Each structure stands twice: as C-alpha cells, then as structure tokens.
C-alpha cells in the first residue's frame, strides 16, 4: 500500500426527512446563502419546498441561481459569483446532482478569487479558500457530496475539466434516499454506471491494497444488485439508499488512497461530453468494457480474475483468461440489458470525426494517461473505435 493523507470532513445526514438538520448546520457558518439548482426537477418533486421551508424556519436568507445545466458551464459559475458578491452571501447551498454541486463548489472558490474563475478550473492549485459549501443530494452518481471534485465545461472551446481542493469539500451534505425516487430511468442508470466507473478506476490497478479492493467489490456488488431494482421500482427505499451511499463511498478517497493509479476511463469520457454534451454515466458505460478488453494483459489478469470471481461469482477453477473475458462480457451485458444504457458511441450520436482531437485532449496536457496500463493518444483512438 502506498503512503497517503486522508481527511474527509463532510458531515453527512443520511436518511428520510434528514433535511431538518440543514438549517442549524448552515447557521454555524452564515445566515445568507446562494441556492444553486438545475432545470427545475426540485420544484416538481417537492425538494425545493422542503429546503426553502427549512431555510425560512431558521431565518436564513437566500438568493437563487437556477438552470445549472447537466455538464455545468463556466457561465453559470460566473453568474453565481456575481450574485454572491452583489448580495454579500456567506455560503453556497447546492440542491441537485453532481452538476449543481460542482457548480456551487467553483462559485464558492471564485468569490474569493479576483480573476476569471476559468483559471480555477484549469489550475486547481489556485484554489486556496472558499465560502462554505452545503449540498442536498438528489441523484446518486458522482460522489460530489463528499469529495473535493468539480467538473466544469466551456462548450465554446470543447473543454471539460476537473478541479478541486481541500476547500471545496462540502461542509454538510443531506442524503435522503427518497429525494432520488423521481430520478428518471435514464439518469438512474447513468448514475449507477458512474458509481461503478469510479470504483473500477480505483480497483483496476496493480498495487496490493487488499482492503480497498474488497470494499470496491462490495460497492460494485451493491450497484449490480440494486441498480436493476431501482429501475424497476423507483420508490424502493433500500435500493435508493444503498445506491446513494455507494455513490458517496466510491469516490470519497477511501478506495483511492494507498491504491490508485491515474484514472483512465474518465478522461476519455470527459472528451465525449466536451464535444457532444453526452450524459457522463452513459459515456462511461460505453467506454468501460472496451477499455477493459484493451488493457487486459498478463500483468493485470489476476485483478480481472478477482473481479470475475468475487463480484460476478464466476467459477474460480476456470481458466484465468476465460474468467477475465466472462467478467468483461457480464459488465457489458449489465449496462446494456439490465440498465438499458445505449451501448455504442453511434447510439450516443458520436462519430469518429473528432477522435484524434479528443484523444490528445484526454491526455490533459501530458503525453499519456498513466493508469493501470499506460495509454497514449493512439491507444485512446483505438478504444473509441472499438465503441463505435
Ligand atoms: O437539472 P435538474 O432539473 O435538476 O434535472 C437533473 C438533470 O436533468 C436530473 N435530476 C437530478 N436529480 C433529480 C433529477 N430529476 C428528477 N428527480 C431528481 N431527484 O438529472 C439530470 C442529471 O443531473 P446532473 O446533476 O447533471 O447529474 P450527475 O449527478 O450525474 O452529475 C453529472 C456531472 O458531474 C460530473 C459529470 O462530469 C457531470 O458534469 N462529475 C462530477 C464528479 C465529482 N464532482 O466528483 C465526478 C464524476 O466523475 C463526474 O465527472
Ligand atoms: Zn464519474
């Protein structure tokens, strides 16, 4: 196991009706916040009312930034910073999925930064200080509720970049599984694919971090068990609760620390979203089985065998290569047939026209992605081609 530092300071209130804890916790920091949310789902499903009732009860004033897009844009960040300054707000409260929470994070830092916030997206080292960040999670997927990361897009330049620092970890997050009952099938499935991908990014490595690997397998099994139940029964509390908690733990640092290499599938997917604005989890689901097939080799086959045996229950006495290939096939089948995700780039409306450009940008300014298997742009083009 590698050395690591880990601090996860987010206070979580998990369960039905736990929004009642929000007001008093916000008041420890401020009584005037920016309320950040997306395209209006929270007004239809009653979450907006729960949250604003809680703010009113605690005499917390708020100003609203609505219409944050899925794949949040830098323009929303700029607007949020302006509102915080104009109204002298002391905190940022996101109510939504990863897009609203990520947008809130960069707003919170941008208020303390005197130049354009795109700088903060390009260079996370500039993130020194932030207004306190709070979240009410409405979609189990990104783990933004308990991690420092924020992914922001500039569609004008086809850039989608991840940033984050210690100051962007939320202070408090409300995780009420009932708030995810109204998540449509498409986003429930994409969320499950995202949780699984975060777990795969940490799990597929050549380092021996036994405990992290077993916890990763537990998260994967949770997704495989409860994903289809949540699709069939959107109001199944146990399914929504387990997926919500899996989303948080897949990316809050526990699986990564001591174990992980650079992530591989996420940088490839972020280019799909940057060029074609696809749903993050769907892009990941398409790329994951192809990436697995491409990187499987003699050095890493044992991890694929563990995945097949421990997660999918494949007979451990079979030939190693057979187990590895069966595990990849089962992964693909799960996304395609159990989660009903459109499983090719063409089904997502993507052709090969930008593969070269996207593959270079996926390197994020370096020569290669140094994941479990090092990938150069030509490798990424081949993986994209396998997904057509
Ligand atoms: O905009 P609204 O009206 O809220 O509707 C959203 C949106 O259309 C809807 N939705 C969310 N909760 C709902 C609901 N609809 C009904 N009922 C509810 N309870 O779902 C749609 C997608 O929402 P979004 O927030 O975009 O989804 P997600 O949570 O998957 O976030 C995706 C963004 O997060 C980034 C992605 O790249 C993408 O930009 N990521 C953030 C990460 C992080 N912060 O750590 C890591 C991830 O790897 C990822 O890159
Ligand atoms: Zn992700």
Automatic annotation (TrEMBL):
<feature type="domain" description="Fe-containing alcohol dehydrogenase-like C-terminal">
    <location>
        <begin position="188"/>
        <end position="386"/>
    </location>
</feature>
<dbReference type="GO" id="GO:0008106">
    <property type="term" value="F:alcohol dehydrogenase (NADP+) activity"/>
</dbReference>
<dbReference type="InterPro" id="IPR001670">
    <property type="entry name" value="ADH_Fe/GldA"/>
</dbReference>
<keyword id="KW-0560">Oxidoreductase</keyword>
<dbReference type="GO" id="GO:1990002">
    <property type="term" value="F:methylglyoxal reductase (NADPH) (acetol producing) activity"/>
</dbReference>
<feature type="domain" description="Alcohol dehydrogenase iron-type/glycerol dehydrogenase GldA">
    <location>
        <begin position="9"/>
        <end position="177"/>
    </location>
</feature>
<protein>
    <submittedName>
        <fullName>Alcohol dehydrogenase, iron-dependent</fullName>
        <ecNumber>1.1.1.1</ecNumber>
    </submittedName>
</protein>
<dbReference type="GO" id="GO:0046872">
    <property type="term" value="F:metal ion binding"/>
</dbReference>
<dbReference type="GO" id="GO:0005829">
    <property type="term" value="C:cytosol"/>
</dbReference>
<dbReference type="InterPro" id="IPR056798">
    <property type="entry name" value="ADH_Fe_C"/>
</dbReference>
<dbReference type="Pfam" id="PF25137">
    <property type="entry name" value="ADH_Fe_C"/>
</dbReference>
<dbReference type="Pfam" id="PF00465">
    <property type="entry name" value="Fe-ADH"/>
</dbReference>
<dbReference type="InterPro" id="IPR018211">
    <property type="entry name" value="ADH_Fe_CS"/>
</dbReference>
<dbReference type="GO" id="GO:1990362">
    <property type="term" value="F:butanol dehydrogenase (NAD+) activity"/>
</dbReference>
<dbReference type="InterPro" id="IPR044731">
    <property type="entry name" value="BDH-like"/>
</dbReference>
């Amino acid at each position: 196991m590698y050395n690591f530092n880990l601090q996860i300071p987010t206070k979580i209130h998990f369960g039905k009706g736990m929004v009642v804890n929000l007001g008093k916790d916000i008041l420890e920091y401020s009584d005037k916040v920016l309320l950040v949310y997306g395209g209006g789902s929270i007004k239809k499903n009653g979450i907006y009312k729960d949250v604003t009732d809680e703010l009113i009860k605690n005499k917390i004033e708020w100003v609203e930034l609505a219409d944050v897009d899925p794949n949040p844009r830098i323009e929303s960040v700029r607007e949020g910073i302006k509102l915080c300054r104009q109204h002298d707000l002391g905190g940022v409260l996101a109510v939504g999925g990863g897009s609203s929470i990520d947008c809130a994070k960069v707003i919170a830092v941008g208020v303390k930064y005197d130049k354009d916030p795109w700088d903060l997206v390009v260079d996370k080292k500039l993130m020194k200080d932030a207004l306190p960040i709070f979240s009410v999670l409405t979609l189990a997927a990104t783990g933004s509720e308990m991690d420092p990361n924020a992914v922001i897009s500039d569609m004008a330049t086809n850039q989608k970049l991840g940033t984050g620092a210690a100051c962007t970890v939320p202070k408090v997050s409300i995780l009420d599984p009932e708030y995810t009952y109204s998540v449509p099938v498409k986003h429930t499935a994409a969320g499950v694919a995202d949780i699984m991908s975060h777990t795969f990014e940490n799990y597929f490595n050549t380092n021996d971090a036994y405990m992290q690997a077993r916890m990763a397998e537990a998260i994967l099994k949770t997704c495989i068990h409860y994903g289809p139940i949540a699709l069939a029964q959107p109001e199944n509390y146990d399914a929504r609760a387990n997926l919500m908690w899996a989303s948080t733990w897949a990316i809050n640092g526990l699986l990564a620390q001591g174990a992980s290499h650079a992530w591989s599938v996420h940088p490839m997917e972020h280019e799909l979203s940057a060029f074609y604005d696809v749903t993050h989890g769907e892009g990941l689901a398409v790329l994951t089985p192809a990436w697995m097939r491409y990187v499987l080799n003699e050095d890493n086959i044992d991890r694929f065998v563990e995945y097949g045996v421990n997660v999918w229950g494949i007979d451990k006495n079979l030939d190693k290569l057979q187990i590895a290939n069966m595990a990849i096939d089962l992964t693909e089948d799960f996304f395609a047939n159990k989660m009903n995700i459109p499983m090719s780039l063409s089904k997502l409306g993507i052709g090969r026209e930008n593969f070269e450009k996207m593959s270079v940008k996926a390197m994020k300014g370096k020569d290669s992605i140094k994941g479990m298997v090092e990938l150069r742009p030509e490798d990424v083009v081949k993986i994209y081609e396998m997904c057509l």
